[in-house]
Amino acid sequence: MNGKIFIIEDEPSIIQLVQYNLEKEGLIVSSATNGNEGLKELKKFKPNLLLLDWMLPDFSGIEICKNIRKDTNFKNLPIIMLTAKGEEEDKIKGLDSGVDDYLTKPFSFNELFARIKAVLRRSDPKLVSDNLEFEDLKLDRNEKRVFRNEKEIKLGPTEFRLLEFFLTNPKRVYSRDQILENVWPNNINVESRTIDVHIRRLRKSINLKDQKELIRTVRSSGYSLI
Amino acid sequence: MNGKIFIIEDEPSIIQLVQYNLEKEGLIVSSATNGNEGLKELKKFKPNLLLLDWMLPDFSGIEICKNIRKDTNFKNLPIIMLTAKGEEEDKIKGLDSGVDDYLTKPFSFNELFARIKAVLRRSDPKLVSDNLEFEDLKLDRNEKRVFRNEKEIKLGPTEFRLLEFFLTNPKRVYSRDQILENVWPNNINVESRTIDVHIRRLRKSINLKDQKELIRTVRSSGYSLI
DNA sequence: TTAGTTTGTAACATTTCTGTAACATTAACT
DNA sequence: AGTTAATGTTACAGAAATGTTACAAACTAA
């Protein structure tokens, strides 16, 4: 998982627990314990998602929510509202005010994480890194497997990383320099032509007989998925 | 999971989160927010395990701990101490005072749950009934036995822990570092190649003649069950 | 203690991967 | 068409990762 998450919540222990667990998942987390501070920090931090407590010392979550939506920069910022038990009837109001999802306290981290993933997947699919998919290609990062049309394809380590890299942003054209930086271990120097050879190998592996070519060559620019 | 768990902790939100998650796992949970109340309730509730905060409003966890040990009924009550960050040096004292394990805040619920299971497994194995299965493999944690196709397989201690670890998340690829961290006792340093040898031993043990290979090697990444 | 396990490591064997060079082909441009 | 630069393709030697075996030290149970 990638991305930045901002939390506005007045209970420090909740922040602590959530932050700890989210960071373990590779996310960047920042927080505030009241609405005023929160709105200020938000602009600096530029998160990909906001966790917002319903009841704050200064403002209610719904007020903050409306406030945020006024700012064009955050018009589409996904928000998950945290509500305490017994505020059930307010849920609808919450959703009306432009919240993407809500969660009732107490919640387990797994529940929260699942919601975050779901919301982020909608708003910014790149960030959710579980499995990568494109057309009939599927790449499972946990199991380190690749499938084309449900059929498993065996790839060498570099081929795997290469495909993984392309899949984070399919269709986008990457220069050889960019590929080098992102796919090869740091500070390793290889000839630029080496990439061509690996592309060739990857092509050979993923293009089973008479299937559509998946890697496009953009002459003098680089390669991309297509 | 069965059994009763008592929590003495002054932070209500922590109690709430822990209690919620433990109950989801089938445990019976009760709690107190200070030492006095806690000691009283304890006697009525008769838990199988106690979660004890290090810093309480009235007593320190260590005082409570000593107090409990005086009572013959609770002489052997397993205790897991919850300490805040930066109280590292106190850990030893904590263990001396008859605590079975400790956990530093903030912690993830999964960490806590793993500790609870580990401690309960020692003190009262009946309560922990989690056996692991995958394909035709069965691993009995209580009796420390492993079966393939109903036929028992004898494993050495490290082989057992290794297999146990893989079974918690079969199919997932684990790096040698992850394996090291999770299978070897803390702070023990062994060569990374040592893992390969243990994998080999495990393979030899669980792959009875001409049975399907169960451990997959993922070059440059690690191993997984398959 | 003693005999039998278990463990970590080193050493060697085997497999798989990687980078490069050399040559072939294609695309772009005049 | 001819020229040039970029990319495709192939083969191969060395590198790197993993498999395998043996052994001495540490540990256990009797």
Can you give a write-up of this model?
- Two copies of one chain form a homodimer.
- Helices cover 40% and strands 21% of the residues of chain A.
- Chain A has 226 residues and is α/β, with parallel strands linked by helices.
- Chain A folds into two domains: 4-127, Rossmann fold, CATH 3.40.50.2300; 131-225, Orthogonal Bundle (Arc Repressor Mutant, subunit A).
- A five-stranded parallel beta sheet of chain A has the order 2-1-3-4-5, with helices on both faces.
- In chain A, strand 7 (137-140) and strand 8 form a beta hairpin.
- In chain A, helix 6 crosses helix 8.
- The longest helix of chain A has 15 residues, at 109-123.
- The two termini of chain A are 24 Å apart.
- The A-B interface holds A 11, 13-14, 16-17, 19-21, 24, 105-109, 142-144, 156-157 and B 11, 13-14, 16-17, 19-21, 24, 105-109, 171-173, 218-221, 224.
- Chain B binds a DNA duplex (30 and 30 nucleotides) through helix 6 and helix 8.
* Oligomeric composition of the shown chains: homodimer
Q: Describe the biggest sheet of chain A?
A: 5 strands, parallel
Distance between the termini of chain A: 24 Å
> What share of residues are in beta strands of chain A?
15-25%
CATH architecture of the largest domain in chain A: 3-Layer(aba) Sandwich
Order of helices and strands of chain A: EHEHEHEHEHEEEEHHHEE
**Structural shape of chain A:** elongated
Query: Which residues of chain A sit in consecutive blocks of at least 5 with pLDDT less than 50?
Result: none
Total domain count of chain A:
2
CATH homologous superfamily identity of the largest domain in chain A: Response regulator
Mean pLDDT over all positions of chain A: 88
Number of strands of chain A: 11
Global Rg of chain A? 22 Å
What fraction, in percent, of the residue positions of chain A are helical?
A: 25-40%
Q: What is the spatial order of strands in the main beta sheet of chain A?
A: 2-1-3-4-5
